[in-house]
Amino acid sequence: MTTIEALARAKVNLALHVTGRREDGYHLLNSLVVFAGVGDRLVGQTADALTLEVTGPEAASLQGEDDNLVLRAARLMGTARLRLDKVLPVASGIGGGSADAAATLKIMSGLTGRPLPPPEQVLALGADVPVCLNGSPARMAGIGERLDPVLMPKAWLVLANPRVPVPTGPVFKGLAGFGAPLPDIPAFATVMELARWLRATRNDLEAPAIAIAPVIATVRDALADLPGCLFARMSGSGATCFGLFATEAEARAGAGALPEGWWRAAAPLET
Questions:
Q1: Model-level pTM?
Q2: Set 40, 85, 100, 128: catalytic member
Q3: Please, how many CA atoms are within 13 Å of residue 191, restricted to the half-sphere of its CB?
């Protein structure tokens, strides 16, 4: 019996500009995407049937779902016994489901010997699945299919979620309009340079998400007020927000200072 494990790391949109919408309804995005060293863990074993067991601190949020992204991704590849240790909150703007789907595809490819599905099938699983499959810092454009590599400095992130799920659809419906794409992304030598660059960018989904869940602003501001926080913003469509830090000590202390009722984590920014 073959066993393969994978870490489905949290995807963080450091900046997210919505630049338009296609005739088919898909929004055009321009985003700086990075990954944090915290995530869900998947284990796959060869088997004659496809099964999924969900465990972990956030498992309850997926109970009763018989068509989640892990199973949808696995069905593209074959059969296996899968176990998902769910650590990331659902509907939280850090790509938990998309990262799980990408990790599943990698595991299934290793177990079955089959190549990964073609790009159009990967994208059909969700706009964030291609960048999660790529797994490296990238400028994401189009509807998620265009990825350009980006160099990131060493840094730490504090992620915080008030345990309020925010559906993506209503957030996009709340957009007031579309804006310009991201400026050119340099090769950041230091985290301070990254923080300065981020101040000239946006997350266009932050305002409509806060209109739906005002507590997001509370989380963002709490992160910004932590000692050592260089920049704070909402990730994706919310409600998770991130704080950018230079050192592990500052990040861990910051995460520990946040309200215990929130989901929070300190993790390195993966380069």
A1: 0.96
A2: 128
A3: 18
